[in-house]
Design a protein that fits this description.
The structure holds two protein chains of two kinds.
Chain A: H1 3-15, H2 21-28, H3 31-48, H4 50-53, E1 74-75, E2 86-88, E3 91-95, E4 100-103, E5 109-115, E6 118-122, H5 141-177, H6 179-193, H7 197-207, H8 214-244, H9 248-255, H10 260-296, H11 308-312, H12 318-323, H13 329-352
Antiparallel strand pairs in A: 1-2, 2-5, 3-4, 5-6
Helix pairs in contact in A: 3-5, 3-13, 5-6, 5-8, 5-10, 6-8, 7-8, 8-10, 9-10, 10-13
Chain B: E1 17-18, H1 42-60, H2 65-68, E2 71-76, H3 91-97, E3 105-107, E4 114-116, E5 119-124, E6 130-135, H4 149-159, H5 168-172, E7 180-185, E8 188-192, H6 200-203, H7 211-219, E9 242-248, E10 252-257, E11 276-281, H8 285-293, E12 299-300, H9 304-317, E13 319-326, E14 330-335, H10 339-342, E15 343-344, E16 347-348, H11 350-356, H12 358-365, H13 370-377, E17 382-384, H14 408-417, E18 421-423, E19 426-428, E20 436-440, H15 447-462, E21 466-469, H16 474-484, E22 489-494, H17 504-507, H18 526-540, H19 544-561, E23 564-566, E24 568-577, E25 580-581, E26 584-586, E27 589-591, E28 597-598
Parallel strand pairs in B: 2-11, 20-21, 20-22
Antiparallel strand pairs in B: 1-22, 3-4, 5-6, 6-8, 7-8, 9-10, 10-11, 12-24, 13-24, 14-22, 14-23, 15-16, 17-24, 18-19, 25-28, 26-27
Helix pairs in contact in B: 1-8, 4-7, 12-14, 13-15, 18-19
């Protein structure tokens, strides 16, 4: 039984090749990878189009609505439909100590879609609708999550871009050239790898000069973080490059008089790109978690700028988790994104494994 | 009673920077570098408390052993810096050794009257310039040596030694000269003052140290290195109600009552009634809260957001949450007016001009949303502050000051009138510079000050002023305040005390905590000169009622010239177990802490 579909599979693939490469890739994905891809697309949409998707200004403080729960939506009935299909009753804080809110049933705030350059928002920005509640200063949590995606989703890309391009070139060069240079570079990598990263970061966060904006200073930290972490990757690449060096196609290239740079760029590095891609997608979550750890400790992205890490710092207070559980939502987004990168990395590994390339 | 409710105004007197809002001590509060969690994941941060909860409640601790052993457990946020009572500069050290040493007199936190301590009686000379203390005869140091006048003279000599850095000397210096003292017999001390000095009785509460133990170290120049935290507790010679029996850095300080303590229960029996105390050291505010909820500690001063939760669970946990009163310190935005920071080689930084421009600062005072801060950061448990003196200080608080209302339109109008024009949403000063400065406060797990800064920043940005908010570690802030002067605007706290002259190190133009321009050689402005003069005159008037107008006028000047913009003042609460008897917290400290005991069940 089991042998039959396997032999049939390539035939199907041949048949549907005309549907386009993207469709074929999609079909080859298993459901976790598909879900991950969709999720990541959504999160990167958050980052790219945050002013459009976020209903409100992420730093606007609704000072009469701190720690406001997510608001219930109601369907509009009858003639009121002209205002919109969905509405919420505006909340009013009756007890600042207990953060108790009661809905004002005499008024309705209607949700408007594609209104004033927002995906959805209320007609009057001063009576907000909080999809995911508000945080301690009365800022819309959903808007902050959307804007926070800019930092949290990009941090990994920037970090991986720097560390992997460095690691790939240095590793490939070192492995291909060999000898004393190889030895020197590898010992240097070992020194860098022995630095305690997190403490190194804490020290760096402390010496970043004042005057640069917090986002700039944070990207500085990420750049530095990736300048440390390229080393371990370079070591792996170096081993692969040393092996590839003896492969017939490289030997042939050398015999035909190809320059060292040309062979590196045209033959050695491309042979390792697949491996690099898998590794990159699997190490992006590391950067995201690193960002959240730093921001959680107040050393990363500073208020009022939002990132998923510093939004989560509100959840460090057990009081907040108990009474305002929605402060954990940024953590949900963070773990979804981390999970998605891991599933996608897994898929890439299967897909790009030797023999699976079609 | 090393708990946060106790204000140590009888220990270290001058006004001090207040790091966290649960700090009730009259001293500089430092915070050690925080212990970092392994990975920084939120749950990782909490796992120690989860463990504590798990083992604390279920395995190790029968629920009532605190009562059975008459041992009071409380917690504090950092390790002590020193065990030397003269050198103390941080509240953790003051908490650690506060019950080890005593002064000649003490102030009753309930009646605010001066009461005998090591001196049983005292008489003031007819000209108000000599004061004679008669010491108790029944006091012994923990090594058995009797306490005598020699100890008092030695302590005074150490305090006034310029080589011993301490904050006590400032409050005891009258017109620049120290108090002289002599001992006609071993149990009498006569002090000579240059002129009548009203704050004397409040300032004379400094801790007395043993001459026979420390004089050798002092004469060999080693005093500043004695009784550091590496000293074995048994070597600390003390005479107060408790002795330290064990100190485990980062974990706890254990106290046992002093067997030879001089104070006795009028009904017979030993004092203090508690047999011992344990002070748990825990740098994380959230886990200090969880420790209290789990019953590991007996007293706790809750943060505003915890008050409600604790009140809800009060019956179940068997605790009482007592309102203590309004914070006696102050919390304010300060602007740097220090020419040493802003003027170099004749080039004046525009920020210097803004911050010394009274119209600019007044406009900013109208941009502080105190009610918003009260609702958002303090859960309504605070009142707007107008003066640097707390309304709890009924005699010296000036009730006639009118607050700067929160009114952004008025603030914008005032800025426009003063020449700070708005163009395309950006505010420019009369010389065409963009109005932009840095705002800082203490970083850390204390979210409250950060939130207040974010609120202020938001309002200033509505006025077109760019604010670069950058929280910093407390210690680095203190260095900036005292040494490099490298700051623009800062949210800072001060501790308060009953005696207004204790704020002299802040108010006086020569003061080391004269934040906006510390240690001025001569007063930089006429109003600063007037404050100096009022302080001198106020200290010379002996009748408290007649003194008040001097300090009212000082508050008026500060309110008018706005070197600091007051924000809000919290309402304080103390939570403690119902099994504690005679636990009477007041805003100025615990009333008769030696009577506290656990109810015998």
């Amino acid at each position: 039984m089991s042998a039959l579909p396997r032999t049939l599979e390539p035939a199907f693939a041949e048949e549907r090749r005309d549907r386009g490469a993207l469709a074929r890739e999609w079909r080859l994905m298993r459901w976790p990878a598909r879900a991950s891809l969709v999720m990541l697309v959504i999160f990167y949409l958050f980052a790219a189009a945050s002013p459009l998707i976020a209903p409100y200004d992420p730093v606007r403080q609704y000072r009469d609505l701190p720690d406001c729960p997510p608001m219930a939506l109601h369907l509009t009935r009858g003639a009121d439909r002209v205002h919109g299909w969905l509405f919420a009753y505006p909340l009013k804080m009756v007890d600042p100590l207990a953060r108790r809110f009661v809905p004002d049933l005499s008024r309705k705030t209607y949700l408007r879609f594609f209104y004033r350059g927002h995906l959805f928002t209320t007609e009057d920005a001063s009576t907000p609708y909080f999809l995911m509640g508000s945080e301690g200063l009365g800022r819309d949590l959903f808007s902050r999550i959307v804007y926070g995606a800019r930092v949290s989703m990009c941090i990994g890309l920037v970090g991986v871009l720097i560390s992997f391009s460095l690691g790939l070139f240095v590793g490939a060069f070192s492995g291909y050239v060999g000898g004393r240079i190889d030895n020197l570079i590898m010992r240097w990598c070992e020194i860098e790898m022995s630095l305690p990263q997190f403490y190194f970061l804490l020290a760096l966060a402390a010496v970043i000069p004042s005057g640069v904006s917090t986002v700039t200073s944070f990207f500085l930290i990420v750049a530095i973080m990736s300048f440390i972490s390229w080393a371990s990757f370079a070591r792996v690449i170096r081993g692969m490059a040393a092996a590839i060096r003896a492969e017939p196609f490289v030997v042939a290239g050398r015999a035909l008089g190809g320059s060292r740079a040309r062979i590196l760029a045209r033959h050695v590095i491309p042979a390792m790109l697949g491996f690099a891609a898998i590794n990159a997608s699997l190490s992006i979550p590391g950067y995201m978690l690193g960002e959240s750890a730093l921001s959680l400790l107040g050393l990363g992205i500073q208020e009022p700028a939002a990132s998923w890490g510093n939004l989560l710092s509100q959840a460090m207070d057990p009081q907040n988790i108990e009474h305002y559980p929605w402060v954990l939502l940024p953590g949900l987004f963070l773990s979804l994104a981390v999970m998605a990168f891991n599933f996608l990395g897994d898929h890439l590994r299967d897909r790009l494994a030797p023999g699976n390339l079609r | 009673m090393p708990d946060a409710s106790r204000r140590r105004l009888n220990r270290v007197l001058p006004r001090a920077l207040d790091d966290t809002r649960d700090c009730h001590t009259g001293v500089l509060r430092s915070r050690p570098s925080r212990v970092l969690p392994l990975m920084g994941l939120p749950l990782m941060r909490l796992w120690p408390c989860v463990l504590l909860l798990a083992c604390g409640c279920r395995v190790n601790r029968p629920p009532n052993d605190h009562a059975a052993t008459q041992t009071l457990y409380s917690s504090m946020g950092s390790d002590p810096g020193t065990f030397n009572p003269i050198l103390v500069t941080d509240s953790a050290s003051a908490d650690a050794i506060g019950d080890l040493f005593e002064g000649l007199v003490k102030q009753n936190p309930k009646t605010n009257l001066i009461e005998p301590d090591l001196a049983s009686t005292w008489t003031l000379g007819p000209d108000g310039r000599t004061i004679t203390f008669h010491l108790r005869h029944d006091v012994r140091w923990s090594d058995g040596v009797p306490f005598t006048a020699a100890d008092v003279l030695f302590t005074l000599r150490v305090i006034f030694d310029p080589n011993v850095p301490n904050s006590i000397s400032f409050a005891l210096t009258i017109d620049g000269s120290p108090i002289t003292a002599e001992a006609p017999d071993p149990y009498t001390v006569v002090m000579h003052l240059k002129r009548p000095f009203a704050p004397l009785m409040s300032s004379i509460q400094f801790p007395i140290i043993p001459a026979h133990t420390l004089s050798h170290a002092y004469s060999s120049g080693q005093f500043n290195r004695t009784w550091g935290i590496d000293t074995p507790p048994a070597q600390l010679v003390s005479l107060g109600a408790y002795r330290i029996v064990r100190y485990v850095p980062g974990q706890q300080i254990a106290f046992r009552r002093y067997a030879d303590y001089w104070m006795h229960d009028p009904n017979g029996g030993r004092l203090p009634r508690l047999h011992g105390q344990v002070l748990l050291i825990n740098t994380d505010a959230n886990s200090r809260y969880l420790q209290f909820v789990a019953g590991l500690t007996d007293v706790y001063s809750p943060r505003p957001e915890e008050v409600f939760t604790l009140e809800q669970q009060a019956a179940r946990l068997g605790i009482t949450i007592a309102p203590v009163g309004i914070d006696t310190g102050s919390l304010f935005f300060a602007f740097n007016r220090n020419p040493r920071h802003y003027i170099h080689n004749g080039v004046i930084d525009p920020r210097y001009k803004w911050f010394t421009d009274i119209n600019f600062v007044r406009a900013l005072a109208h941009a502080v949303d105190k009610q918003g801060m009260i609702n958002l950061c303090f859960r309504g448990l605070a009142i707007p502050a107008v003066s640097d003196v707390s309304p709890e200080n009924k005699l010296y608080y000036n009730p006639n000051l009118k607050d700067y209302d929160y009114n952004l339109a008025l603030a914008a109008h005032l800025l426009d009138e003063a020449g700070y024009k708005l163009r395309d949403g950006v505010r420019y000063d009369p010389a065409g510079h963009r109005v932009e400065f840095e705002l800082t406060t203490t970083a850390g797990d204390e979210a409250l000050r950060g939130e207040m800064c974010v609120i202020f920043k938001q309002d200033l940005e509505k006025l077109g002023i760019k604010v670069d908010y950058r929280p910093q570690e407390f210690i680095s802030l203190v260095k900036r305040l005292e040494k490099s002067f490298d700051w623009d605007c800062m949210l800072m706290g001060f501790t308060g005390s009953l005696e207004p002259n204790d704020g002299a190190n802040f108010l006086r133009s020569s003061g080391n905590l004269h934040l906006w321009n510390p240690s001025e050689p001569t007063p930089a402005t006429p109003w600063e000169a007037e404050i100096d003069r009022l302080l001198d005159e106020g200290a010379a008037v002996m009748d408290p009622q007649a003194r008040a107008p001097y300090y009212w006028r000082i508050q008026e000047i500060l309110h008018d010239q706005l070197p600091i913009i007051e924000t809000v003042r919290a309402r304080r609460f103390i939570a403690y177990k119902n099994s504690l008897q005679n636990y009477v917290p007041t805003v100025w400290g615990l009333y008769r802490p030696e009577m506290i005991e656990f109810r015998a069940d």
